[in-house]
């Protein structure tokens, strides 16, 4: 049953349009007409709403990824869910983890990390640009994850993290190689390092820094996700989609 303040995924019945909106948020505008979100308060999951244009929408509880995709404000380049979840895996992030992230951006990856460290963990996220940090604050608060995130305006490539004994450090920034030595200082023995690189040059410089710092169990992986058309009689790969986005370096503090 929906409660006021929940996020709802609204799927056009018989169509391809989808959006996310907050239950109890009054009337919202979509390209399919206006929808009254107050009508969903107390309604069961799967309820159907009709827009002002007569378009019917089924309402389902939105996942954290639905909200990030449809409702997060974007100030900086955002990491794709396929890469964010892979980073969670290789960094061993889970309930109770203490994680540092350098390169908050708009908070997309920050939110995913915070979702996984709940209910006892914390994400220390560092950003060097105030305009990016302000957007991230709003995004993180909109999904109620602010109790698990500590945001700081700080250039870790110049001054380090100021932390120790971390379970994982994630670098998603323009010059991660400059922060690698500081990441090693901040990690506990056996802690995990994950770096997201978008170009070959970026990847090579990051790998060189990881090797020089003495990390072990180093790996490089690229995550490819290809959507298929799920229509009976027409099942085949989609013609267009997101393929290459970057590489993920994973290593352990040895």
Brief synopsis:
With 254 residues, the chain is an alpha/beta fold. 26% of the residues lie in helices and 30% in strands.
For the sheet with most strands, the description reads: 7 strands, mixed
Strand content: 25-35%
CATH class of the largest domain: Alpha Beta
Mean pLDDT: 96
Strand tally is: 15
Give me the oligomer status. single chain
What sequence of helices (H) and strands (E) makes up the elements? EEEEEEHHEHEHEHEHEHEEEE
Distance between the termini: 48 Å
Q: Structural class given helices, strands, pairing?
A: alpha/beta
Computed CA radius of gyration, to the nearest angstrom: 20 Å
Write the CATH fold name of the largest domain.
Rossmann fold
The second-level CATH architecture of the largest domain is 3-Layer(aba) Sandwich
As a percent range, the share of helical residues equals 25-40%
Low-pLDDT ranges: none
Describe the structure.
One of its GO terms (biological process) is tRNA methylation. This protein is α/β, with parallel strands linked by helices and 254 residues long. It has two domains: 7-62, Roll (Vcp-like ATPase, Chain A, domain 2), CATH 3.10.330.20; 74-252, 3-Layer(aba) Sandwich (Rossmann fold). It is built from seven helices and 15 strands. It has a seven-stranded mixed β-sheet, with helices on both faces. Helix 2 crosses helix 3 (108-117). The radius of gyration is 20 Å and the shape is globular. The N and C termini lie far apart (48 Å).
């Amino acid at each position: 049953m929906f409660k006021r303040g929940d996020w709802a995924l609204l799927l056009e019945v018989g169509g391809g349009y989808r959006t996310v909106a907050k239950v109890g948020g009054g009337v919202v505008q979509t390209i399919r007409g206006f929808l009254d979100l107050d009508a969903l308060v107390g309604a069961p999951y799967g309820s159907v709403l009709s827009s002002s244009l007569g378009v019917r929408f089924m309402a389902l509880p939105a996942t954290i990824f639905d909200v990030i995709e449809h409702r997060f404000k974007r100030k900086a380049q955002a990491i794709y869910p396929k890469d964010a979840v892979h980073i969670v895996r290789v960094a061993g992030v889970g309930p109770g983890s203490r994680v540092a992230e350098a390169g908050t951006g708009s908070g997309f990856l920050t939110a995913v990390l915070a979702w996984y460290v709940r209910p006892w963990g914390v994400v220390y996220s560092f950003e060097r640009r105030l305009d990016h940090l302000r957007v991230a604050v709003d995004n993180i608060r909109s999904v109620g994850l602010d109790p698990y995130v500590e945001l700081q305006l700080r250039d870790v490539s110049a001054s380090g993290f100021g932390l120790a004994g971390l379970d994982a450090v994630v670098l998603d920034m323009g010059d991660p190689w400059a922060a690698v030595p500081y990441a090693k200082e901040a990690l506990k023995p056996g802690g995990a390092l994950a770096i997201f690189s978008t170009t070959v040059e970026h990847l090579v410089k990051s790998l060189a820094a990881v090797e020089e710092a003495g990390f072990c169990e180093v790996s490089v992986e690229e995550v490819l996700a290809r959507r298929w058309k799920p229509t009976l009689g027409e099942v085949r790969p989609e013609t267009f989609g997101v393929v290459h986005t970057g590489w993920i370096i994973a290593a352990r503090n040895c």
